[in-house]
Amino acid sequence: MGKPAIIDLKHLNVNQGNITIAEDCEHLPFKLNRVYWLTDISKGQVRGNNASLVGQRVIACVHGHVTVTLEDVSGNHYRYELSDPHHGLYIPNLHWTKIKFMESSILICLASNRFQESDYIRSYQEFLALPRN
After folding, report:
1. What is the CA radius of gyration of the chain?
2. Does residue 133 fall inside a structural domain?
3. Which one of 60, 85, 107, 132 counts the least CB within 10 Å of its CB?
4. Where is the Sugar 3,4-ketoisomerase QdtA cupin domain (predicted)?
């Protein structure tokens, strides 16, 4: 299990604006298998409230601002503010994740695996019951 970290995503400044790039293994700590995004989330709403058993993610706030709180199985807590679309937050597996939307925001998620419900822990009590390191 790795530690969460801010990742600088490759971006290019061009005459018409900016282009941000995320390519397998060059900019991400895993092979990219899935991309999804969250939109139209009300200010103050919290999403996530889950952990992945094996899946890893990099999330980036491409518009607006979100606060991300993470907890690992050892009980360490991390807090990140995301508002720069050129920075992604690497979330390793086995990290309880809560994402609070602070304004009209768009969050993109780059995931290491395809969706499988069996990979998700959706009960915080179940997460706390996992063996501690």
Report:
1. 15
2. no
3. 132
4. 5-129
Taking only the tens place, the pLDDT of each residue in 5-56 is: 999 888 888 888 888 877 766 778 899 999 999 999 999 999 999 999 999 9
pLDDT tens digits along 93-108: 999 999 999 988 999 9
Domain count, the chain: 1
| Residues 46, 95 contacting (CB under 8 angstroms) | no
Type of residue numbered 105? S
Amino acid at 65: H
Handedness of CA 125, 126, 132, 133 (dihedral sign): negative
Q: Which domain holds residue 59?
A: 5-128
Kind of pairing between the strands at 46-52 and 95-101: antiparallel
